[in-house]
Design goal:
Mean pLDDT: 93
CATH topology: Uracil-DNA Glycosylase, subunit E
CATH class: Alpha Beta
EC number: 3.2.2.28
Number of helices: 6
CATH superfamily: Uracil-DNA glycosylase-like domain
Enzyme class: hydrolase
Distance between the termini: 42 Å
Pfam families: UDG
CATH architecture: 3-Layer(aba) Sandwich
Strand content: 15-25%
Low-confidence stretches: none
Protein name: G/U mismatch-specific DNA glycosylase
Number of domains: 1
Order of helices and strands: HEHHEHEHEEH
Keywords: DNA damage, DNA repair, Glycosidase, Hydrolase
Length: 186
């Protein structure tokens, strides 16, 4: 497949899933809301041009250079992984129901208990609030833990989230990076 999906490929990607990038005992497991059609068509997380996840990951100090979505498996060597609250692809996150998000929160908690990352970083405050039932949660570290895993909520890196500039996103990712380093030895 070319690096840019066609209209037909995007249409065919609706309700697909993308494999997690995951391994036991990661430093940080990043968790998106759900994959978009562009990501579904390519089979890569945060693949849509304009999504600021990869630049924020680099700006926050998690990667030594700006990675491309096609290099997502290389994150495992850095102690990082990617999953989603809801696995199915949609054109927009607002196509998800609250019930889907809550069910996704349960699946995510089970995954965290199985893989034991040191930190779970949910990228999307609204999805986190709904999935875990914390309607007043704010961006940053949470009191809520899953087993021994600490939870951090990051802003949604979608280009549609204009409230957060690329610089501000990088700064939020850097705060998590600093916390993940200080707590490396559980």
């Amino acid at each position: 497949m070319s690096t840019r999906p066609t209209k037909d490929q995007l249409a065919a990607a609706h309700n697909k899933t993308i494999e997690d990038v995951i391994a036991p005992d990661l430093d940080v497991l990043f968790c998106g809301i759900n994959p978009g059609l562009y990501s579904g068509a390519l089979g890569q997380h945060f693949a849509r041009p304009g999504n600021r996840f990869w630049p924020a990951l680099h700006a926050g100090g998690f990667t030594p250079r700006l990675y491309k979505p096609s290099e997502q498996e290389d994150l495992l060597k850095l102690g990082l992984g990617i999953t989603n609250v809801v696995p199915r692809t949609t054109a927009r996150a607002d196509e998800l129901t609250d019930d889907e998000l809550r069910e996704g929160g349960k699946r995510l908690a089970a995954k965290v208990l199985e893989y034991h990352p040191r930190w779970l970083a949910v990228v999307g405050i609204t999805a986190y609030r709904t999935a875990f039932g914390f309607p007043k949660a704010q961006v940053g570290p949470q009191e809520h833990k899953i087993g021994e895993t600490r939870v951090w909520v990051l802003p949604n890196p979608s280009g549609l989230n204009a409230h957060w500039t690329p610089t501000a996103l990088g700064q939020e990712f850097a705060k998590l990076r600093a916390a993940s380093r200080s707590r490396r030895n559980r």
